[in-house]
UniProtKB/TrEMBL annotation, chain A:
It is an enzyme of class 2 (transferase). PANTHER family: ACETOLACTATE SYNTHASE CATALYTIC SUBUNIT, MITOCHONDRIAL (PTHR18968:SF13), THIAMINE PYROPHOSPHATE ENZYMES (PTHR18968). Its cofactor is Mg(2+); thiamine diphosphate. This is Acetolactate synthase. GO terms for biological process: isoleucine biosynthetic process; L-valine biosynthetic process. Binds 1 Mg(2+) ion per subunit. Binds 1 thiamine pyrophosphate per subunit. One of its GO terms (molecular function) is flavin adenine dinucleotide binding. GO terms for cellular component: acetolactate synthase complex. Residues 224-359 form the Thiamine pyrophosphate enzyme central domain. It catalyses: 2 pyruvate + H(+) = (2S)-2-acetolactate + CO2. Its EC number is 2.2.1.6.
From TrEMBL, chain B:
Catalyzes the conversion of 2 pyruvate molecules into acetolactate in the first common step of the biosynthetic pathway of the branched-amino acids such as leucine, isoleucine, and valine. Belongs to the acetolactate synthase small subunit family. PANTHER family: ACETOLACTATE SYNTHASE SMALL SUBUNIT, ACETOLACTATE SYNTHASE SMALL SUBUNIT 1, CHLOROPLASTIC. It catalyses: 2 pyruvate + H(+) = (2S)-2-acetolactate + CO2. This is Acetolactate synthase small subunit. Dimer of large and small chains. It comes from Spirosoma rhododendri.
Length: 591, 177
């Protein structure tokens, strides 16, 4: 992002650093809060906003009218869509996505996306309108305590009640959202602050530091040395790479580190695509529905190098039994994650890129072929018992794995996959052969149904040169399907695949396995998705026969513009392998 | 259950109390007492929070979560023997005409408490001390009618030679004279 030292303006837009000499005949008028907000966004390098106007944010929208040549505002259909679209955009761009919504319900509709962004460390700046200062706390129309509501789910939030605060608060917001462990920030801006004029010239200075907030990027030498010692003495070392690698743009450093040390690499769900699946050191992904070998052998490693991951319970299973035998090196930018779930023998606080760069010269070149081949044995078992049956069906409905596998082949593993939450998410992660970094956008920590469609749109806006494909379940799709309108209106060539089994599949699977098939309210009577898409002006088709799948995918990928492909899949299919909730990872089930 | 005193140094901003207490609420940790005031540095507030907890490890995690808040500059967790601490209590005692008269000398000399206000038929007595001392005094005063009793949260300073200046980030702080 371009660094702007400072910008000083009056309401004429003239750079007036040396021209602010008040003239008797034409006194200088200063910017309104809303204008200052727009100028601040431009100064920060923001070119895209996802938003939805309303009463309490109208002055900002009025100011935005004059900024259409500099800021691309995208009108979504629901504020949750704005939040998820901004997340998709942020993941692709590697910088904060920006949302602009009104007060009350506009703000509360954003809450799910904010919570999602916090747990998955996605930088967002959410600007929310608020009733005028004099009305605060009076239960005025569309007043909600947004500060109170969002306090536990934001990295930082602030209420602007004075137009003079705008520039300082905005620069601080972007700095906090994007630095250290990224996350969402929220700015609650009273309508009075939007309307009133500043009492001084506008000046924007990018925030470079905050006294009380000093994320450590460069690790302490002694921590790095301690980690290197453990690695150099390891017999069965194992790298667990998480989202933090991607956030730090440390994919190359991870590869160099792993290749020099010869250590097998597994990823978390959000860590997928940090290392190509065809890399010889890649052994699969971890977690409840991850690969067989990666899970089982976690409990046989003697040194675990966890990089930019937080030992989510979906990764650890029963944490009290997780990697008890191993020395744990935890590379993490957020100190509060150290020892939170798993005790670290060698914590290294810092940015993954900086830490890996510091580690590289200290580690010995090594080769753990024998240990790595252990994974291949389990891969073979998984391939035989899970993969082959799922990919070689000739009877019955199409299976989810077939769709993803074929899509992977047709896109050479180079698409950006945006998934919703559930069985299709796990299948997408299991069967898509990621070959490019930053290629999976999914709701990991929060598991937000409805994430994929708006996030895919945002990802496409953030990465216009890449093929973006959303993989969505029939239940998830109906949570945010109104964003089809946003996709069509903005002519974004998002391809969306609905894997339709007329069930809330993951819940149904659990009910089958753990509740004696008592299917409690999980069967859906679905609408005609393609008719709905066409109603929005989007092309699409339904595929319910195996022999038509290849052509249907080709049609979708070749289509010039957005496209919805509904694939009718097996109704009662289960995702395996599976670590039952609360079990240890070595108790992973193949059936 | 061990008593821990958590001292938090923060910027003096609106809403920060909420942000801090949410961390306790979310983990179902009860706050026994809480005191907030500005420190000798302008713009820097000091929270003193007392909790009881079985696990030191969990308290350490709590401290790290508090430190994560943007406006928080420093957090320290202490055991009782690592700090000098006190509380203040006020007792409103009924002194009706013809009633039992107060033994002010005992109150002053034995209990180190002071009558700070004389009303027409009541007095207000101030007592500083730790929990045990205050409740010991409470026990003594039970012979009179206690109309009101209020106790502050704990205030505490660490048993260290260091002052704020040594563990807060450097900045252009203004000091109260």
């Amino acid at each position: 992002m371009e660094t702007i030292a400072s910008v000083v303006l009056d309401s004429t837009g003239v750079n007036s650093i040396n021209e602010l000499v008040p003239q008797e005949t034409a006194p200088v008028t200063f910017l309104s809060g809303a204008q200052a907000l727009m100028e601040s966004l431009v100064a920060e390098g923001v070119d895209t906003i996802f938003g939805y106007p309303g009463g309490a944010i109208m002055p900002v929208y009025d100011a935005l009218y004059d900024f259409q040549d500099r800021i691309n505002h995208i009108l979504v259909r629901h504020e949750q869509g704005a939040g998820h679209a901004a997340q998709g955009y942020a993941r692709m761009q590697g910088r904060a996505g920006v949302c602009l919504v009104t007060s009350g319900p506009g703000a509360t509709n954003l809450v799910t996306a904010i919570a999602d962004a916090l747990i998955d460390s996605t930088p967002l700046v959410c600007i929310v309108g608020q009733v005028g200062r004099k009305l605060l706390g009076t239960d005025a129309f569309q007043e909600a305590d947004v500060m109170g509501v969002t306090m536990p789910i934001t990295k930082w939030n602030y209420q602007i009640t004075d137009a003079n605060e705008v520039a300082t608060v905005l620069s601080k917001a972007f700095y906090i959202a994007q630095s250290g462990r990224p996350g969402p920030v929220l700015i609650d801006m009273t309508k009075s602050a939007q309307i009133e004029l500043m009492t001084k010239p506008f000046r924007y200075e990018q925030c470079q530091s905050i006294v009380s907030y000093r994320p450590r990027l460069v690790p302490k030498t002694e921590q790095v040395e301690a980690a290197a010692r453990l690695i150099n003495n390891a017999k069965r070392p194992y790298i667990l790479a998480g989202h933090g690698v991607q956030l730090a743009k440390a994919e190359n450093e991870l590869r160099q580190f792993a290749e020099k040390a010869g250590i097998p690499v597994a990823t978390t769900l959000l860590g997928q695509s940090t290392i190509p699946v065809d890399h010889p050191l890649y052994v699969g992904w971890l977690g409840m529905h991850g690969n067989y070998g990666t899970n089982v052998l976690t409990d046989q490693a003697d040194v675990v190098v966890a990089i930019g991951m937080r030992f989510d319970d979906r990764v650890t299973g029963d944490a009290s039994k997780f990697i008890k035998q191993a020395k744990v090196i935890h590379i993490e930018i957020d100190p509060s994650e150290i020892d939170k779930i798993i005790k670290a023998d060698a914590p290294v606080v810092g940015d993954a890129k900086e830490v890996l760069k510091a580690l590289l010269p200290l580690i010995n070149a090594n080769d753990f072929t024998v240990w790595r081949n252990e994974f291949r044995k389990y891969d073979a078992i998984e391939h035989e018992q899970i993969t082959v049956p799922e990919l070689s069906s000739t009877e019955g409905k199409i299976r989810m794995a077939e769709v993803i596998d074929m899509l992977s082949t047709k896109t050479n593993g180079e698409a950006v996959l945006v998934t919703d939450v559930g069985q299709h998410q796990m299948m997408a992660s299991r069967y898509y052969q990621f070959r490019r970094p930053n290629s999976l956008v999914t709701s990991g920590g929060m598991g937000t149904m409805g994430f994929a469609l708006p996030a895919a749109f945002g990802a496409q806006v953030g990465a216009p040169d890449r093929q973006v494909v959303a993989i969505i379940g029939d239940g998830c799709f109906q949570m945010t399907l109104q964003e089809l309108g946003t996709i069509v209106q903005n002519k974004q060539p998002v391809k969306a695949i609905i894997l339709n089994n007329n069930f809330l599949g993951m819940v149904r699977q659990w009910q089958q396995l753990f509740h004696q098939r008592r299917y409690s309210f999980v069967e859906l009577q679905n609408p005609d998705f393609i008719t709905i898409a066409r109603g929005f002006g989007m092309d699409g088709q339904t595929c319910d026969a195996r022999e038509n799948l290849s052509d249907a995918l080709d049609t979708m990928l070749a289509h010039d513009g957005p496209y919805l492909l509904e694939v009718v899949v097996e109704k009662e299919e289960n995702v395996f392998p599976m670590v039952p909730a609360g079990a240890s990872v070595s108790q992973i089930r193949l059936s | 259950m061990t008593t821990y005193t958590i001292c938090i140094f923060t910027e003096n901003t609106i809403g920060l109390l909420n942000r801090i207490t949410i961390i306790f609420t979310r983990r179902r940790v009860n706050i026994e007492s809480l005191t907030v005031s500005e420190t000798e540095r302008k713009g820097v507030s000091r929270f003193t929070i007392v909790i009881k907890h079985e696990s030191r490890e969990e308290v350490e995690k709590l401290v790290r979560q508090i430190r994560k808040i943007v406006e928080v500059m420093a957090v320290f967790g202490y055991l009782n023997d690592e700090i000098v601490y006190n509380e203040i209590a006020l007792f409103k005692i009924s002194t009706p005409l013809g009633g039992k008269s107060l033994d002010v000398e005992t109150i002053n000399k034995q209990y180190k408490a002071w009558v700070v206000y004389w009303g027409l038929d009541y007095v207000v007595i101030e007592k500083t001390g730790n929990n045990e001392e205050i409740f010991d005094f409470f026990g003594y005063l039970k012979q009179y009618e206690i109309l009101e009793f209020v106790r502050s949260g704990r205030v505490a300073v660490g048993k260290t030679e260091k002052g704020l200046v040594e563990y807060l980030p450097e900045a252009d702080w203004a000091y109260y004279l």
